[in-house]
Design goal:
The structure holds two protein chains of two kinds.
Chain A: H1 10-23, H2 34-40, H3 44-73, H4 92-114, H5 116-122, H6 125-128, H7 133-144, H8 149-176, H9 189-202, E1 226-227
Helix pairs in contact in A: 1-8, 3-4, 3-7, 3-8, 4-5, 7-8, 8-9
Chain B: H1 2-15, H2 26-36, H3 56-91, H4 118-151, H5 158-169, H6 176-190, H7 204-215, H8 217-220, E1 239-240, H9 244-247, H10 256-263, H11 266-271, H12 283-296, H13 301-321, H14 334-339, H15 343-350, H16 361-381, H17 389-417
Helix pairs in contact in B: 3-4, 3-5, 3-12, 4-5, 4-6, 5-7, 6-7, 7-17, 12-15, 13-16, 16-17
The chains are: A mainly alpha, B mainly alpha.
């Protein structure tokens, strides 16, 4: 009995979200978006700000790029415009980066308007989201894994949330580590990398979730005190 | 006693002074001295001081006392499970009682394989547990000693507890070199690089097990590693003994309580007459330890209570949320999640670690409850791991500072509002 759930059912979307947040965390499993992660994780408040900015940008750009991919870029996507043979795949990077840059510009203006303090705290890193590999990576994974539109919205939100969780927990850890006697050569980035590795191990908690597919098991193997027959 | 004191005082001159002969080894000497005698705290004449003989070493010893029931049960049950497995193999004709090959300790105390006595169980248990304890303590304390000497600090006592915990949470069939690798990883990368005892982010014992789990999955998971044997791999060839949670793990199990009851009675699960990691089997021993920890004030009852409530609540919630066709551990009764795995051991001895858990009281409630919830999530919807306690404690260790941050922030806000 193997019940693969429909791609848009609640169960499979929960799976997708748990995966994107924990076991396939865009930062801790793929190590994307490391530069702003290392630079802005010194204080929890700015980490939360950047985390929210990344979630926001991901939620907007991943579905947006899904639309670009499916209505313009993919082979045959321009069918609706009367060009069934078109293949604009070579414009993918350019289109994605341009759309991300535009969204980031809007977010930057919004943050400046509504929270000048956060704007000052984030400084150069807000514009840098435009070239944050986690954002572009999110869009590219969306294409590679052939998500539906609903899935791309969930994936955008949860991969952004995973990134935000990672940076917030790291900022709190670094704050806690301030009085510790860390050996000289490891101070700063060294200990941050080591901690990142350990946190990545902890984030493996949900690895193995696979769209609620029951694992085929040999019932013979799960009887205690049973003597196996030689193979 | 006075004789020992005099001996130490006499030797002290060799180590203590700046230019004495063995000054470099002072941390090692100091560790031995404070192990034997409470250190003399000298306070200034002026100002206010709190004097208390409950120093770190006394606290650690209290935890070790709390773990003694589990250790004793580990020694007993390792032997009992071993001879139970041997009897099964003999019955199946895969092995003869005369062909039984004993280990190093059994060559001194020869077991009667056909009808093993209590003594035989204990001898076999010691034969497996002693090397594990020696490797765990030897490697761990050795590394701590080297770091202390290089740093010119006192050797601290934190590892006394971690070393025992590590011995209690690995399968007794673990190859000793792998255990040594895991201990070295946990002590160096989990603790010493952060500055030693009291500064680590993750519980070193949990890190050791997680490292072994990911690095050597064949020896740390599966159905055959939980009962140890006497051959080179410390296994009984061809004998399979899945843990209680592994039995109910497949999604084809539609009534996990009934499936579990076919294999283990509730009394077996509670008293620990089951295969599993060395020390986590007997819930009775864990409860004894928990009472001792709460009674002495060393372990946080908030974390323990919140963890148990979180586990029970989440298990009831998953029962209600998941569709009726969904099989596996979700069909277990809520209380069976408590007695069927290592959760109690984890929440009592590992999650209450004061260093890697939140410092605020409200933070402790949140932290404990989330450990229970994540454990249930892993057990019910993650097909990869049957247990889940280890990784959920590690995950919440990573978030302990974050929880503290938000609790402290909300406390400040509340005070400002007053």
């Amino acid at each position: 009995m193997i019940a693969i759930l429909e791609p848009n059912s609640i169960g499979s979307l929960v799976d997708l979200a748990l995966k994107a947040i924990f076991s396939e965390n865009i930062l801790l499993a793929y190590f994307l978006g490391m530069c702003s992660y290392l630079a802005v994780s010194k204080r929890v408040d700015s980490a939360i700000g950047l985390g929210i900015a990344v979630i926001f940008v991901q939620v907007l750009t991943v579905p947006m790029n899904w639309a670009f991919q499916h209505f313009i870029l993919a082979p045959g996507a321009l069918h609706w415009a009367g060009m069934p043979d078109s293949d604009l795949g070579y414009l993918q990077f350019l289109t994605f980066i341009a759309s991300i840059a535009a969204v980031v510009q809007v977010v930057e203006m919004a943050v400046d308007k509504f929270s000048p303090k956060l704007y000052a705290a984030l400084g150069i890193f807000l514009p840098l989201i435009a070239v944050n590999c986690a954002i572009l990576g999110g869009s590219l994974f969306m294409v590679q894994k052939e998500y539906t539109f609903t899935q791309s919205v969930v994936y955008g939100a949860s991969s952004g949330m995973g990134w935000a969780l990672a940076i917030v927990s790291m900022a709190a850890i670094r704050w806690k580590l301030r009085p510790c006697h860390i050996p000289g050569p490891l101070k700063g980035l060294g200990i941050t990398f080591i901690t990142t590795g350990l946190v990545a191990m902890a984030f493996m908690t949900f690895s193995g979730i696979q769209s609620f597919v029951p694992q085929p098991t040999e019932p013979a193997a799960s009887t205690p005190g049973q003597v196996e027959t030689p193979r | 006693m006075q004789f020992l004191r005099n001996l130490i005082e006499k030797q002290k001159t060799l180590y203590h002074g700046k230019d004495s002969r063995f000054h470099k080894l002072w941390p090692a000497f100091d560790a031995l001295e404070t192990f034997l005698f409470a250190p003399e705290h000298r306070a200034d004449r002026t100002g206010t001081h709190v004097r208390d003989y409950v120093d770190l070493k006394r606290v650690m010893n209290t935890v070790i006392v709390a773990m003694l029931p589990c250790l004793l049960w580990a020694i007993w049950n390792t032997g009992a499970q071993h001879f139970h497995a041997v009897a099964q193999m003999v019955q199946a004709g895969k092995m003869t009682a005369d062909g039984y090959v004993g280990g190093w300790l059994q060559s001194l105390f020869v077991p009667t394989v056909a009808a093993p006595t209590a003594m035989d169980n204990i001898v076999y248990g010691l034969q497996r547990m002693l090397p594990i304890l020696i490797v765990s303590y030897g490697v761990g304390l050795g590394i701590e000693m080297v770091f202390s000497i290089v740093r010119k600090e006192e050797v601290s006592e934190g590892y006394l507890v971690s070393g025992m915990l590590i011995a209690l949470i690995v399968p007794t069939s673990i190859p000793l070199w792998q255990l040594a690798c895991g201990v070295a990883f946990a002590v160096v990368l989990g603790k010493e690089v952060f500055g030693g005892t009291g500064m680590n982010i993750f519980n070193p014992a949990m890190l050791c097990r997680a490292f072994l789990f990911f690095a050597f999955p064949a020896q740390l998971s599966g159905d055959s590693v939980w009962v140890s044997g006497n051959n080179a791999s410390h296994l009984i060839d061809g004998y399979s003994s899945p843990t209680a949670l592994a039995i109910v793990k497949p999604q084809t199990v539609t009534d996990a309580s009934a499936t579990l009851a076919q294999h283990f009675s509730h009394a077996d699960l509670f008293f620990g007459n089951i295969p599993g990691s060395a020390g986590e089997m007997s819930k009775l021993c864990v409860l004894l330890g928990a009472f001792w920890l709460v009674f002495t004030g060393v372990g946080s009852w908030r974390v323990m209570l919140a963890g148990v409530l979180g586990l029970l609540g989440a298990s009831l919630a998953m029962h209600a949320l998941l569709p009726a066709s969904y099989g596996g551990p979700v069909t277990l009764q809520a209380y069976e999640h408590l007695i069927a795995g290592g959760f109690l051991f984890g929440i009592v001895y590992m999650a209450t670690d004061p260093v890697s858990s939140p410092e605020t009281n409200r933070g402790k409630w949140i932290y404990g409850a989330l450990i229970g919830v994540v454990t249930i999530l892993v057990r019910t919807i993650n097909p990869a791991y049957p247990e889940g306690t280890m990784l959920s404690i590690l995950l919440l260790n990573a978030f302990a500072p974050t929880i503290d941050h938000f609790v402290v922030g909300s406390n400040i806000k509340r005070r400002l509002a007053r």
